[in-house]
Write a structure and sequence with these properties.
Number of helices: 8
Number of strands: 0
Radius of gyration: 53 Å
Distance between the termini: 136 Å
Largest sheet: none
Shape: elongated
Helix content: over 70%
Mean pLDDT: 75
Low-confidence stretches: 233-258
Amino acid sequence: MAEDEADLEDLIASEPKTRKVRKPQHPSPPQNEKCRSRIDQLAIPSRRLILALYQNHSDHLPKEKVEKIKALLQELYAMTPEETQTYFQHLKKQELEANRRKDIKFMLKKLVRRKKRAKQTKKAYNLINHLLVQSMEYALKHPVPPLVSVRLRNLSNIVLEQISDMMNVKVPDREQPDPLGYFLIQVADWTAIAIEHLYYGVQLKKNQELQKLAAEAKAREQLNKEKIEPPGGQSEDEHETGGSEAVLSEALLVSEME
């Protein structure tokens, strides 16, 4: 047994030992220092963007961030702290001046609109005043025709109440009016007649437009109907009967010829 173990050890010792071959390791490519520095340079925001950030959002950012942006701008623009402080004060002054000009421009536009509206209001008031004076003079010089219609009388009463309320006087009695009441009644009657004429004019124009639309719709419907009907003014049944009669006549002619 011992001899067998010794022979086995001799056999193992006599076998050639295999060498472990190491795989060649590829060296890592050398880092390009120039490219890395360029990336770092591009990663830094431009001076214009940093300056725009300070100008537009310095009021929104915390104080620490603002101080950091100031220090970065001082480093980028190569300024001393005094120059930096003066520069930022100048920027703040420019911003306040721009806001002030914007407010002044807005107020001037508002003032122009207000003046224009006041001018238009005054013009309309003068026109209404002129028309009212002319109407009163006409009502004073010309007698009012009798108001036969109940609707005209009711409309005149409404106008009379409105005029009396505007003049801060009591509504005059139509049976026994005083001079002022008689004048107001005449004005109210003429105003009611004018409103009635305007109403009838508007209704007449509206009816004319409706009649025109109805005529156009009728003409369009007639045109569509003519397009649907077959040519010759015959219907499909007439065409079918006409075709059958033609076939029968042809058959009769053939039989006669035979």
